Amino acid sequence: METVKVTAETKATVVPATRKKRKLTADHWFAFSFLLPSIVLIFIFVYGFIGWTGYVSLSSWNSLVPDFSFAGLKNYAYLFSDFRFQADLRNTLVFTILFISVVIILGQFLAILLDQKLRGESIFRNIFFFPMALSFVVTGVVWQWLLNPSTGINLFLKKIGFESKWYTDTNILASLHWGKIEFGVPVAMIAVVIAAVWQMTGFAVAMYLAGLRAIPDEVREAARMDGATEFQIYRKIIIPLLRPITVSVIIIMAHISLKIFDLIYAMTGPGANFVTDVPGVYMFETTFRGNYYANGAAIAIIMLLSVALFIVPYLISSRKGES
Amino acid sequence: MQKKAGPLFYVFLAVFVFFVMFPFLWILLSSIKPLSELFGDRAFNWFTSHPTLKSYVSVFVNYPFLRYLWNSTVVATITTVYTVFVAAFAAYAIARLEFKGKAVILGIVLAVSMFPQIATISPIYMFVKKFGLTNSYLGLIIPYTTFALPLSIWLLVTFFRKIPFDLEEAAKMDGATPMQTYFKVILPLAVPGVFTTSILVFIAAWNEFLFSFTINTAEKYKTVPVGIAMFQGQYTIPWGEISAATVIVTIPLVIMVLLFQRRIVSGLTSGSVKE
């Protein structure tokens, strides 16, 4: 798979050089007509509408009646001083960090386990991958059921002596005052992280496995010859070689967690004191339930910028790597 | 590698397999238990002595679940066919043709596939409403373009790139036009890639929640994820029915993953794993 890709790409750069002059215009027109439908659709429906959202975020449209008078950054200023939005920022930060670290550690660990020439490896891979195909809504509903106090995990915890409503707990761990909110780890957020980890770890396992398979056996053989133990081989050679995959996993998981909506909406909702609220839920409710269109648009733009912060540098660097 | 995995590995794996499977098993058991065994101590009985399919019947009789399934099938199928068709042209141009600004176009497409849909939701809602498309299939198919099209282009580009260039060159030598080359040489070779892309786009469209929830609010046009999320009434949560509905939508996905796991994984990872 890898070799094919490499030859294809080298040829792509070699072949046209010889025939560029002759074919240029015809090929250009051809490429243009092939690209046109997709480009038009993407520009209208994505970039156009994002532009519109950006425009609304600078307007005064905070009621049922559209009002496009210019408000500057007023909506943004309001959000950053808003208790709910500050809580959202804390929750997103906590969720992103916990979710990504657990997915990376578990994903790497499980991929290495599966790479040990196990019996029935494909069955295990299938099992780990299952939750990935579900929608976040189904995951949210299932975990809401599992965490229901009169059945499932929590009834079991109660039996063995831990009676706590941790998944709706309004406590903030390691809290310190910051702005209007308590900054720290909301206990209830941990439940959401567990559900998200359950769903997404399989994806990280699949990516790490692909990465492990791409490492030639000679690398391990050579290290073994030099007397390295299996543990050393992983710690010193294999895991560092997997670093580019870790970067990809971080990017993919970060963009999922920064824009998360379905899972939380279906599982916990905003929660008391907004302990499990995220910008996506706030945006949806303030726009479609409260008719604060400009505020909602400002939240959407902040979400977009936070995702762009991750993906734009990644796209630029991976493009450089390609050429 | 010669070393064989020790028993400890299997113990570790078993723990994780349990963690992954537990929610599935729990929901499956909940779906066949009578209401009286759903809560309290009896919830821990692994096997119910009175298995019942009442929840399954209720899902179809008391709720328009069949309608939801049909709506999801229609919307996801049309979205998949139309976006993969449009995307195949663009992906071919990006993967196989040489022209200026190619990298920029690919970047624009890739960026879009990661953007939060929420940044387009309110203008799209206005747009759909203005054209009287709320509570219709078209009202979802059009917005689904925003994530399905970039996803299709992105996946297809990686598949098209894997097809050896020699064949295309040979076709050109024999005097084939680019159009002929595309339809007679490239497309037949790309069938597995197109197929994989279609599966992934279908799953994405099938699972979509935000647009569907906002745009199609009438019972008649709700899709499965919205239906499941909205099962809970004002005062009661019918967990038996919710479990049954969840099992019903999960089974096709589980079968799909079983059948096409290798393809799905390679499709998802090849775009993102840069070797």
TrEMBL record, chain A:
GO BP: transmembrane transport
Keyword Cell division set for record: no
One Gene Ontology CC term in the entry: plasma membrane
Keyword Magnesium: no
Record-linked PANTHER family: ABC TRANSPORTER PERMEASE PROTEIN
Sequence similarity: Belongs to the binding-protein-dependent transport system permease family.
Protein name according to UniProt: Glucose/mannose transport system permease protein
Species whose genome carries this gene: Thermaerobacillus caldiproteolyticus
Native organism taxonomy: Bacteria, Bacillati, Bacillota, Bacilli, Bacillales
Automatic annotation (TrEMBL), chain B:
Biological process according to GO: transmembrane transport
Main location: membrane
Keyword hit for Translocase: no
Coiled-coil intervals: none
Pfam family, one: BPD_transp_1
One GO CC annotation: plasma membrane
ABC transmembrane type-1 domain residues: 69-260
Listed PROSITE patterns: ABC_TM1 (PS50928)
Membrane topology classification: Multi-pass membrane protein
TM annotation in the entry: 7-29, 68-92, 104-128, 140-160, 181-206, 242-260
UniProt KW keywords: Cell membrane, Membrane, Sugar transport, Transmembrane, Transmembrane helix, Transport
Protein name, UniProt field: Multiple sugar transport system permease protein
Species of the source: Thermaerobacillus caldiproteolyticus
